[in-house]
Amino acid sequence: MSEEEPGGGHRLGGYLRARRELVSPSQVGLPTGGRRRVPGLRREEVALLAGISPDYYLRLERGRDKNPSPQVLESLARVLQLDDIERMYLLDLAAARPRAPRRKRSEHVPARVYELLAHLQVPAFVEGRAFDVLASNPMAVAFSPRLRPGQNRLRSLLLDPEERAFHQDWTKATANFIATLRTTIGDDIDNPRFVELVGELALSSQRFRTLWARHDVRNLDGGTTTVHHPVVGDLRLHRDKLPIEDVILVVYYPDKDSDSDEKLRLLAALAHTGTAADQTRVGRLDASSDRPTR
Predict the structure, then answer these.
(1) Could you give the C-alpha distances from 146 to 5, 27, 125, 242, 244, in angstroms and in order?
(2) 90, 71 contact by CB (below 8 A)
(3) Contact 143/120 with Cβ under 8 angstroms?
């Protein structure tokens, strides 16, 4: 299954077709007049601009030729206007070779990371490759109840109405997460966790189906985001993602002495005092007992 999508489908051909449909004729200097039956470029237009025969390009899209030369791939990347990440993804798809199934490994949070989480005074949590939350500190759960261990960040983002209201730009967030998932999967398409998650979201979310069909790829690393917390209001926070062995430590923090810094300290105080009403509003605060067993 090394050349198949989770759930089926030839990966190289699917990627070429999806990217072709996103490029308009005007973007590559072709006339836009006349009735077009397909969105984006026609196959023969891509072939012409890339300097290859239409028949050869058709074989690529249909998975009949799985060994295009680097020169052909570079030409296709240019025509399809791929950025550096998308271009490398295309090259990796073509370089994929059949391999033995990988032995499933559980994602393990090192004991020292639990100690680190306990000492951090800002929202921090550990996630796996499929955006599963494996561990979190009380501030992370006060920041968002969807950051409890056992939750999946992408599932929450797509299916939980509270998570949609939480993000200032939900549309951008979903696009980034789904593109990152495709990058993360890479050629590990027979991983049971990826197969399960993609299958579940394909059935339950139209937004996922639409974005997954685009074959976008992206690295979701550090950055700055704005969220709307139901108790303390808008928070503008930086996000860093730090690899630790097989997992990722994610930390959210504000600019020092900013309005968000003050609000985050208020949130910490509410989490610490822990009245019943506050716990209902900011989420269950004692996450330490939820350490995953996997």
Answers:
(1) 28, 41, 11, 20, 22
(2) no
(3) no
Q: Determine contact, residues 185/191, Cβ cutoff 8 Å.
A: yes
* pTM for the model: 0.83
Each residue's pLDDT tens digit, 59-68? 999 988 878 9
Instruction: Identify which of 88, 96, 130 has the alpha carbon closest to the alpha carbon of residue 4.
Output: 96
* Residue 68 near residue 91, CB atoms below 8 Å: no
Residues in Cβ contact with 115 at an 8 Å cutoff, skipping those fewer than 6 apart: none
Contact 49, 79 (CB under 8 A): yes
* Residue in this structure with the two tokens 């998308």, named with its chain if needed: 86
User: Would the CA dihedral through 275, 147, 175, 236 be positive or negative?
Assistant: positive
Give residue 87's identity as a one-letter amino acid code: R
Cβ-based burial of 151 (10 A; exposed 0-12, middle 13-18, buried ≥19): buried
Residue 180: alpha-carbon gap to chain centroid? 3
Per-residue model confidence as pLDDT tens digits over 236-249: 999 999 999 889 99
Asked if 251 and 123 count as a contact pair (C-beta separation under 8 A), the reply is: yes
Q: 101: how many CB neighbours lie within 10 A of its CB?
A: 9
Of 205, 113, 195, 112, nearest to 154 by C-alpha is 205
C-alpha atoms less than 13 angstroms from C-alpha of 13 in its C-beta half-sphere: 16
The rounded distance, in Å, linking the Cα atoms of 53 and 71 is 14
133-136: strand order across its sheet = 133-136, 124-127, 247-253, 233-244, 223-229
